[in-house]
Amino acid sequence: MDFFNSTVFHFPKLLFKSMKSLFLTLFLSQFILFAAAAQGYEYDSTEARVVVSRGKGNNHKIPIAFSLRSYCPPPQHQGNFMTCVSWATGYAAYTILCGVANNQKVPAYSGIFLAHHLHRETNYDKGMSISKALDTLKKYGTVADAFYTHDMKAKPKSNQVVEAATHKISHYDKIFDHQKEDKSLLVEKLKQAIEQRRPIIIGFEIDDAFADDKVVLWKGFSTLNAKKYNHAVCVIGYDNSKDNGKGAFEIMNSWGDKWSDKGFGWISYEAMTKHCLAAFIMKQ
After folding, report:
1. What's the average model confidence in pLDDT over 51-80?
2. pTM
3. Per-residue exposure over 155-184, b if at least 16 CB sit within 10 Å of its own CB, e if not
4. For 111-148, how does the pLDDT look when each residue is reduced to its tens digit (9 = 90+)?
5. Residues 6 or more apart from 210 whose CB is under 8 A from it?
6. What burial letters (b/e) apply to 87-106, b meaning 16+ CB within 10 Å?
7. Do 50 and 186 form a contact (C-beta atoms < 8 A)?
């Protein structure tokens, strides 16, 4: 009877405690993963001056929607490392830029190669500015994703360094800085760059709601006291009909294909205006 009492009667209670502990462990691991991944961008007000966008004249009308998604590589996951800037710059934006130049989708370039250069002294526990990533891409170049390791502890090999030197950008421009420019100009600047088929790397503030895998259209902070994180993604499109006709930007994230729409999502024009810190474009 003692065995019956201790084993049968108490088994559901023990099972509940075990399940509760497992759930808590999984929840905390996911939160820690998000917190690390979401703080990989470091805003720097001194990085690069803002340039004036050159449009096609007052008579030019951009379409109501435009997307570079057909040039995008499959979204990958940056893992538990503060490397979102490297992924947004090297893997997303540079791959898209090369695809546009060749007028076809091209094999992806590495997001980790830039990370290895950028994080040599930080052990991936500190965020990076977008300008540092672009300076690295301009100075060292990058390599094809298939040609490079996904081991974060590895170092570039000599032949990879030589290969990377053939894949550089010629220059880059900062087209927006929230401390130096009227935010009302941001939406049109981003739309103009996309219509010119130029992917945009942005650094912006996000909250926990942005990390929800089911988020389709992020409209900004869910609460007034929401915890803020800095993150970097690549803007690849816009659509004026999204958000009930108020418009939204299409982005490519670096949190794998389980996030939002297979790794792609939308940010409303209003949220972008409120939370974007800086925006950059580059040229081969």
Report:
1. 80
2. 0.83
3. ebeeebeebbeebebeebbbbbbbeebeee
4. 889 888 877 656 666 778 999 999 999 999 999 999 89
5. 38, 218, 231
6. bbbbbbbbbbbbbbeeeeeb
7. no
